[in-house]
From TrEMBL:
HAMAP family named among the record's database cross-references: MscL
Function (record text): Channel that opens in response to stretch forces in the membrane lipid bilayer. May participate in the regulation of osmotic pressure changes within the cell.
Membrane-protein topology: Multi-pass membrane protein
Primary site of residence: membrane
Quaternary organization: Homopentamer.
Entry's family note: Belongs to the MscL family.
Classification via InterPro entries: Mechanosensitive_channel_CS, MS_channel, MSC/AndL, MscL_channel
Organism: Cyclobacterium marinum (strain ATCC 25205 / DSM 745 / LMG 13164 / NCIMB 1802)
Keyword Metal-binding found: no
Gene: mscL
Keywords: Cell inner membrane, Cell membrane, Ion channel, Ion transport, Membrane, Transmembrane, Transmembrane helix, Transport
Protein name: Large-conductance mechanosensitive channel
Cellular component GO terms, alphabetical: plasma membrane
Length: 139
């Protein structure tokens, strides 16, 4: 019975719930960033480089051929275009995350730098009354 209670205490701790929420939001954010990269940013870049799709860039080390048994043997290639695509995706994702963190940090700084309200002003009558009170206490 102690093991079940211990597991329950662990599973409903704030840190575990926070982590679960972070993973879910992170997965959703990953989809948004992937769409940003693939659907918005990469098409103009592809257009700038002449409509080249980076993933199609390869170096053929050995051409495809048909062996004597009639079986097709695939070509051996180095797919450097896929690497370029992933490197560009990573750079864009890293930059997007950096910008989001920068905005959040700026919002935190503004919140922290918010001016503290001035201390309440005491009018002269209140000060005089306090002095009279203090004098009466001394007697």
């Amino acid at each position: 019975m102690g093991l079940i209670k211990e597991f329950k205490d662990f599973a409903v701790k704030g840190n575990v719930v926070d982590l679960a929420v972070a993973v879910i939001i992170g997965a959703a954010f990953g989809k948004v960033v992937s769409s940003l990269v693939n659907d918005i940013i990469m098409p103009p870049i592809g257009l700038l480089v002449g409509g080249v799709d980076f993933t199609d860039l390869v170096v053929v080390l050995k051409e495809a051929y048909i062996d004597p048994a009639g079986e097709e043997i695939n070509a051996v290639t180095i797919n450097y275009g896929t690497f370029i695509q992933f490197a560009v995706d990573f750079t864009i994702v890293a930059f997007a995350v950096f910008m989001i963190v920068k905005v959040i940090n700026n919002l935190k700084k503004k919140e922290e730098a918010a001016p503290t309200p001035p201390p309440p002003t005491v009018n002269k009558t209140e000060v005089l009354l306090e002095q009279i009170r203090d004098l009466l206490k001394e007697k």
